[in-house]
Amino acid sequence: MSVQQDSIARFSFTNHDVRGELVRLQNSYQSLLQGHDYPLSVQQLLGELMAVTSLLTATLKFEGHINVQIQGSGPLNYATVNGSHNLELRGAARLTETPAGSTFRDLVGDGAYLVITLTPEQGEKYQGVVGIEGDSLSSAVESYFLQSEQLPTRIWLFADPAQGLAAGLFLQVLPAGTNTGSSFEHVNALAATITAQELYQLSTEEVLHRLYHEEQVELYPEQAVQFFCGCSREKTAAALRNIPLAELHNIIEQDGELRLTCDYCLTDYVYNSFDVEALKAHTAPSRAQ
Ligand SMILES: [Zn+2]
Question: Do the domain assignments include residue 262?
Answer without folding.
Answer: yes
